[in-house]
């Protein structure tokens, strides 16, 4: 079952990393500007965020096997539609179809693991699933750049088809079918409030830079987004079975982990979009060369997965997360060193260190958030966690695109220089956002910080 879940993660990570590397080639083919292609990434991740609450309910109602199989099938069909797109609007619509399938892959797969393994075995199980899933980003950028150069960008989506076929067959044969016989009626009003909040905040942040929405309209959408989220909180407080119960926030580790994920992942979600653009648009790399430069990020991330388990056991969640979050922010800001004159060895080391600390951040945040949910809140809490992950990734690309467009306009208008200073300013901003989120993890209580040590008899002795 772990390998089945890893297959779903592989499809999703392969697609996202290939797309990021191929954005400049897509822009040239579709007659668009490379720095205005963020809608291709945002459409996918935002659709996933919107559909995740439905996927959790469907998994409870129809069973994990049927929903996971349907997710792989829809994702594969969406890939075929992306390959046949001839305009940016068509590509964005096809990415939305992909997002519907991807929305069910991640949370349903994680839910199957959560229901199969006890709490004390969940951390190594999740790490095992994550390591095969890292094969996608390990080969994705290089494979994407290679396909773009020898063929066309369309093949970066067609590559998903054989993986999808194998995944469907394996899921039908081997996936356990767990479901909740007491699944309540779907909370339609609460869902609509959440969707309204997510869509309006994304449009407000991205609309000014990419769509040219007037500033007054952006302000109105931000207010509508805030009102929708507040209204959902009031709705959930008086509804017997809301889509996401507010009781989840009474779990200290879940509350801190969820909020930390929301803000820390904004910066982490921006980097896979920014780095390939920097290498190709500002530093003159070819798509294949840019893909090769992403190998140190993925490889270092894969090897650090096992290290974070040891660090958490040794030092606890609080110390690991507060320190590592600052390190991730500093490594993001360090990309201000990226210039054509930067030595190649320094660039490779920089990418590898970033990949290592970023990977440890993901694993620590994920296990902290889910470790104390238990069977009762597994489905709802897991779906809310996946929603926040996808929303923050969408916001990360949205914020990065808006910052990059703003700084490009300001710097070019003032000096007429290259876009490299605009990239530098953007990296500093996303680094500050990430490092500042360490204050959230600093709120972890002492007993959570020492939990791992208390469970080890040799440590107590």
What is the makeup of the main sheet?
none
Indicate the CATH topology of the largest domain.
Growth Hormone, Chain: A
The shape is globular
Write down the overall mean pLDDT: 83
At the fourth level of CATH, the homologous superfamily of the largest domain is: MFS general substrate transporter like domains
Give the total of domains.
2
> How much beta, percentage-wise?
under 5%
Proportion of helical residues: over 70%
Structural class: mainly alpha
Poorly predicted runs of 5 or more residues? 449-461
What is Rg?
21 Å
Distance N to C terminus: 37 Å
How many beta-strand runs?
A: 0
CATH domain class name of the largest domain: Mainly Alpha
Structure in words:
This protein is mainly α and about 450 residues long. It has 2 domains: about 1-180 and about 245-450, MFS general substrate transporter like domains (Growth Hormone, Chain: A); about 185-240. It has helices spanning about 1-30, 40-60, 65-85, 90-115, 120-135, 135-150, 155-160, 160-175, 190-210, 215-240, 250-280, 285-295, 295-315, 315-335, 345-370, 380-415, 420-435, 440, 445-450, 450-455, 455-460. Helix 4 (about 90-115) runs antiparallel to helix 16 (about 380-415), helix 11 (about 250-280) packs antiparallel against helix 17 and helix 14 (about 315-335) packs antiparallel against helix 15 (about 345-370). The chain is globular. The two termini are about 35 Å apart. Residues about 450-460 have low confidence and may be disordered. It is found in: Cell membrane. InterPro entries: EmrB-like, MFS, MFS_dom, MFS_trans_sf. GO terms for molecular function: transmembrane transporter activity.
